[in-house]
Task: inverse folding
């Protein structure tokens, strides 16, 4: 059974700092790994999708990497801004085609 | 990408009543997914809704409590029946971008349900 873990559970940084969010998964037989952003009380916004054959994806200030063999993905946020404050979730899609989510990292960027 | 409209965005309900949540997608999709997110927790899949067939429920979720309709390829409803305070959660619907595995998942804005 796939399990997804995100560390840290919460992170507070000053504006402008570069930061890394971590996601680990127990079953390396995944189709893809997806990163989402969730604002309080809201739905999920898709940020980046990494296929199992890819090593990384980039969108603006965001860069996500995937290492299937070690069961890890990271989300790198460059030059963080207060508007980046949200909870970041990763989800792994495996053979059952279902998404398994981590509990998220709550990010606060202080002005 | 897919644009998903979910209604209502929030509601406060009395215990013992039922609430139906609607999910409308701007394109035809084969499968629609319903998730629950309890306070402070991550998302848990409730069921997968296919058009023209019964929904497939995950372990711990039953049709009597969470009946689902899927009348066409762009619309689905989830009903939370005989509600108790433990049902207070955010409920979200989701689709895959191409209606196939290994594609990007998109979510509605969620329905924040409080049961009193």
Result:
């Amino acid at each position: 059974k796939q399990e997804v873990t995100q560390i840290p559970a919460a992170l507070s940084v000053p504006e402008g700092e570069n930061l890394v969010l971590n996601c680990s998964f127990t079953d390396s037989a995944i189709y893809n790994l997806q990163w989402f952003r969730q604002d309080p009380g809201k739905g999920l916004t898709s940020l980046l999708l990494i296929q199992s054959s890819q090593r990384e994806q980039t969108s603006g200030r965001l860069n996500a990497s995937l290492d299937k063999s070690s069961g890890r993905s990271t989300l790198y946020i460059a030059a963080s801004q207060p508007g980046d404050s949200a909870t970041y979730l990763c989800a792994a899609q495996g053979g059952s085609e279902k998404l398994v989510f981590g509990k998220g990292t709550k990010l606060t960027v202080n002005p | 990408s897919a644009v998903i409209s979910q209604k209502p965005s929030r509601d406060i309900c009395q215990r013992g009543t039922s609430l139906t949540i609607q999910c409308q997608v701007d394109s035809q999709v084969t499968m629609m997914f319903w998730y629950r997110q309890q306070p402070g927790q991550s998302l848990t899949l409730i069921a997968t809704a296919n058009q023209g067939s019964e929904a497939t429920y995950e372990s711990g979720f039953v049709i009597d409590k969470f009946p689902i309709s899927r009348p066409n390829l762009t619309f689905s409803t989830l009903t939370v029946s005989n509600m108790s305070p433990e049902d207070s959660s955010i409920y979200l619907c989701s689709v895959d971008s191409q209606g196939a595995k290994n594609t990007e998942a998109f979510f509605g804005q969620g329905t924040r349900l409080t049961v009193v």
